[in-house]
Specification:
single chain, 154 residues, three-stranded antiparallel sheet, 25% strand
Length: 154
Amino acid sequence: MKNVFLLLLLAFALCLSSPLTHHAWANSAKHGSEGGEGEGGEGEKEEPKGPQFISIAPMSIPILKNGKVVQSLFLVVALEVENKEKAEAVNAYMPLLRDAYLSGLYGTLQDRGQGTNLVDMNFVRAKLEEANNKVLPPSTVKSILIQQLEQKRP
């Protein structure tokens, strides 16, 4: 029963993190219930203003102890950028950015056997910021939002 619940939770999180879902919700909130089917305003496309949020596909990172996987970390992240231009720049670098995230976290998250064995979110965020600085131009990302962080023992 617990596994079924976790699977449903994971599926729900994946749906919410989908850029298509976010875009559809943003458009329905922006336009309300009117004008959704070609009514008026053809060619009038309102550009998004203000901060933009870019969802990163969920990541799974092993936690090692003595060279063996003792836990897995499931991570869902979004990046906040100032405007549409910076969002497009981040999306252009997405494959390199995901690689840098996974490379930066792999092997650095270790089970230290200190009782709680909880992953330090500040450490994870710092590693993600390091990866941003390696891949993206300076000051591209305003903040890193950790939307979900889940640890599992195999």
